[in-house]
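Reopening this one. Same input as before:
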Amino acid sequence: MLVLFTDTDTDMTPELAKEHGYKLISMPYSVDGKETKPYEDFDEFDSHAFYEMLRSGTIPNTSALNADAYKAYFEPYFANGDDILYVHFSSAMSASFEAMNKAVDEMLKKYPDRKFYEIDTKGISILALNIVLEVGDMYKAGKSAEEIVEWAKTEVDHFAVYFFADDLKFFKHSGRVSGLAGTMGTLLGIRPIIYVNDEGKMVSIGKEKGRAKAIEKILDYVEQLGDDIGNHRILVANADATEISEQIIARIKERFGADLKVEMIEVNPTIGSHCGPNATGVSFHSIHR
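Same output, byte for byte:
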């Protein structure tokens, strides 16, 4: 049997995981030295309380998983005679995958008849989730691991995300985004436009004055790069910014068609630790990233 895995850095929740046939790996964050594992240390993410904590001045930290953690997730399934397909967030963003590779190499020596497949979404949050959900659809349709991995070789680079952050101190703290100018900041009302490139790294590619212009710029990217968007999900990120996301969804439907499959997705706390509250963006099927 093939068992699907993904992780919480893809914005996957236990409810979505159950619906789409995934086992869920929790990627931790810590506040004042106390580590929290999403959906293991709590059942439901209180998005508003978390982002209010960040608004009050807290800046969480995130950390990589070690090899033992991956063994704890994967080994029961290898021992049961199952193969594993892990669809994960960008390996370019974390040292977690060095530990994962070590753990998997050791387990495959122990269980030589088993197979481990992986798909690097080269993304995070809603970009990764868009790919994870497509894979889930294929899995439920009876596609084999080999067919899914072959699809991913070309299709991963045909999903894009463009977003902006309200407060750059979170990205500056994490150092995850290249190209951020030091003068950008909320006091000036500047919103950097950020995307994830085909190396799986976050890059600032421009800036807009004010939220309304930032939203329009993101929609321009959807128009310029969108490919067959009517037959794919469009995901809108919501870091405790429901009203902003609703504005974006309304503008998408007004501009590109009311019958599009547009979903609002809550940004998970580990990724929220990097982007901060009110970060908002759109992921869609694209000509290229």
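So the earlier flakiness isn't reproducible anymore. For the record, The longest strand covers residues 202-209.
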